[in-house]
Amino acid sequence: MTALDPLVRPGQGRGLADVFRHAYLLRLLVNKEIQVRYRGSVLGLVWSYIKPGVQFLVFYLALGVFLGLNKGMANYPVYLFSGIVLINFFGEAFGNGARAMVANGALIKKIYLPRELFSVSTVWVALIHFLPQLLILLIACFAVGWHPGLLQIGSIIVGMVIMVLLSAGLGLLFGVANVFFRDSENIVDLITMVATWLSPVLYVWTMVQKELPAWVFPIYMSNPITVAVELFHYAFWLPTTDGATDIPPHLLTQWTPIAVVISVLVLVVGDLAFRKLEGHFAQEL
Predict the structure, then answer these.
(1) Hey, which of 3, 55, 83, 119 would disulfide with 201, CB 3.0 to 4.6 Å?
(2) Do the beta carbons of residue 148 and residue 249 sit within 8 Å?
């Protein structure tokens, strides 16, 4: 530090800006998370295939076969799996991000490094686990005649951006809350469970429009997870059908920009809360 450098309060970071300045540390944390998670595991990363596969099979049998959703919808397995892989990413990134501070409490108390790295590293780990699931989804889509255009490819990217921003922001917020109130983990589990059913992962969005009052639908579509899931349906599932099924009205022109803005706001609020309270982490942990 030179005489011209501004003084920085000890233990006080610059928020998410520090993540970009410490990319090497981020890579180390991601590698550590992967190694710790699969230490002593026989199958290792193969669990990234097995878990969503079993989950898909259970939901497909329960909803597609027993409740008959498979009969009235073309390529229902593609519809179902394209939503499952996205909600799985959200659940892992958000859940592990919320637990990151407590899980790394011993390291936080010993040395100082940008604490946001712990939360952001969980998002990267979730992306690593997301890629094998995406590969399976792509194989299934090509098998049933997937023919995407540039708009569909763009929808995949935007859908993932929404989920990355939202899960990172919520991970930061609940990561802070979990330091001070350990029962926040239970709230995280509830949010993940509710998010699966409050977005069209297992059912069609038209059911919400038909069965609930008209004022509910705009609220439903204001959920960034709903928009991201529908963007994945638009990108992966819709091109495999005859086009008779429609996407939610104004999905690309109205609800997608709203979802992006909400996700960015959640990330900004999470970063501000984190920066304000991170100085107390060591003593609370």
Answers:
(1) 83
(2) no
Q: Which residue has the tokens 């799985």?
A: 88
- Rounded to a whole number of angstroms, the CA Rg of the chain reads 20
Amino acid found at 193: M
CA 80, distance to chain mean position in Å, is 17
pLDDT tens, 83-124? 999 999 999 999 988 888 888 777 777 777 778 888 888 999
pLDDT the model gives residue 229: 95
Distance of CA 100 to the CA centre of its chain: 15
Per-residue pLDDT reduced to its tens digit, 31-44 = 887 877 777 666 66
Helix residue ranges per DSSP H, 62-149: 76-103, 105-110, 116-143
Q: How far apart are CA 175 and CA 116, in angstroms?
A: 10
In angstroms, rounded to a whole number, what is the distance separating the alpha carbons of residues 220 and 42?
42
The one-letter amino acid code at 93 reads A
In the 8-state DSSP scheme, what is residue 246? P
Under a CB-based contact definition with an 8 Å cutoff, are residues 231 and 158 in contact? yes
- Per the listing, tokens 């991970």 go with 171
What pLDDT band is residue 24 in, cutting at 50, 70 and 90?
A: confident
Burial class (CB in 10 A: 0-12, 13-18, 19+), 104: buried
